[in-house]
Amino acid sequence: MPDSSVDAHSMSPSDMLMIRLSIVVGGVLIALFMTGDLELIPRELAGTYITNRVLIQLPILCGLLVFTFFPQFHRYAQPAFLLMVLSLTYANYYLIHAAWEQAAFSFPYEGTLLYAYFGFFVLGMKFHYALTLMVVSSLGFIGLMLIDPVYGQLTVINTGFVVGSLFIGVIGRHRVDRLLGELEEANGKLITLSSVDGLTRLFNRRVLMTESERLFALMKRTDRRLAVFMIDLDHFKQFNDSYGHQEGDRAIRLQADIMRRVFRRQTDILGRYGGEEFMAVIEGSESGEFERQAAEVLKHWRNQALPNEASPDRRNLSCSIGICQGLANDFESVDDMIKRADEALYRAKNEGRARYVMV
To answer: What is the pTM (predicted TM-score) of this model?
Structure first.
């Protein structure tokens, strides 16, 4: 039946591959920064710098990379991203502090922004995680500047620049999330429109046939019983002409509602075959089960008691049902079953309507 950035609850193999590649690239970038930074920093800082990068920051990345192979990673991906970026950021803050304490060297703060933007846009952190990262990173940087006036007269300006840049990144993340949400909603509507009959909200004929073939193939592999119901409203043209198209549409929707009440399992495939004709493809254990379902459909129509005075027999509106059932292996294809169910439907029509015939 139809139901009307990286999602933390559903990651495809390609999503996982991109995340792992991104983490590896992040590690490579840190290694490349090391080659440049070691040329710029005072020699007495080399040991502290290498320890920080090699024994703290790179293991953090490696830990996240290993965690991506955990079966339930998708459930904890967003908090894991947040924890990783904050760990890298505060490791960088410690490096800035150590550089000032040991050599009065103003170590660059750009890593704070680089790590944050890596989390925002490469790892795809959701807005509320990005907002948390901005707040905690900003508070850490402000605290660091209060402890160590690393950038002298530019401390206030640099602090404002860091906080402002993080805020801009969060706003950008919010806009991305909003656009992705709108795109996902639009795609969902397009999928629904392409698969669902607009009047009945059942499968349209194209998807009905595709899903029926899929279920038939499954039943064939497992040698299980299957039934195809062809259901047609009796003297519908007279009803439509007499009571108007709105009432005709209401009758068609009513037929769909009755089918949903009778065929309630997730595996039941229901659709509008065309006009006032419907089809249901049902798996079951015995023919008696299918007969009970057909009788229940007919009972619902009797209970509705919609008058159809323009019909030749002047009876209430009803439906006729043709059923083809059996082991899937006994039929060449689902089309073969549909053809036989259609023939049974015409027999039901010829025998007086408002009944079912099963073959």
So the answer is: 0.60
